[in-house]
Amino acid sequence: MSRGFLLDTQAILDARRGAPLPPRVRKLFTEEGHDVWLSIASVWEIAIRSSRKEALELGVSLQEFVESTVGSGVSLLEIKPAHLYVLQTLPSHHRDPFDRLLVAQAMHEELVIAGKDTQFDRYGVRRLW
């Protein structure tokens, strides 16, 4: 049984921009009763990508982005040593270090990943899209 949903970085960026999301994913943001998590790894990824001047279209500072996301009912998931222990055991299905950390967090915390990247499926984690 899942304890909630872990947002993929692209999913939270799309949601905040108002981009179309599948109805099941959109419900995570519009219906109460869902435990929804944003990993610090995603915040880190957004910080790196925006410092490289990638067009992320946040519309606000990273701090405002995080504060408003948390203010909307999404919880921040810190990176724990146990997540890194799981990360160390993962096969190399995916080269993206941030996604690999999300997989490890989802496994350890028993979360469903909300994201469209089918590479997550190769790790055996549950995914909602």
Number of strands: 5
The CATH topology annotation reads as Rossmann fold
Helix content: 40-55%
Main sheet: which strands, in order across?
A: 3-2-1-4-5
Q: List unreliable stretches of 5+ residues.
A: none
CATH superfamily: 5'-nuclease
Compute the separation of the termini in Å.
18 Å
> Which whole number gives the mean pLDDT?
92
Please work out how many helical segments DSSP would assign: 6
Give me the Rg, rounded: 14 Å
Secondary-structure content class? alpha/beta
- Oligomeric form of this entry? single chain
The assigned CATH architecture is 3-Layer(aba) Sandwich
How many domains, as an integer?
1
Description:
The protein is an alpha/beta fold. The protein has a single domain (5-128), classed as 3-Layer(aba) Sandwich (Rossmann fold). The chain has 6 helices and 5 strands. It has helices spanning 9-17, 23-30, 40-51, 62-71, 81-89, 97-109, and strands spanning 5-7, 36-39, 75-77, 112-114, 127-128. A 5-stranded parallel β-sheet has the order 3-2-1-4-5, with helices on both faces. The mean pLDDT is 92.
Q: What can be said about this structure in brief?
A:
The protein has 129 residues and is α/β, with parallel strands linked by helices. The chain contains six helices and five strands.
Write the layout of secondary structure elements.
Blueprint: E1 5-7, H1 9-17, H2 23-30, E2 36-39, H3 40-51, H4 62-71, E3 75-77, H5 81-89, H6 97-109, E4 112-114, E5 127-128
Parallel strand pairs: 1-2, 1-4, 2-3, 4-5
Descriptors for this entry?
single chain, 129 residues, Rossmann fold, 6 helices, 5 strands, globular
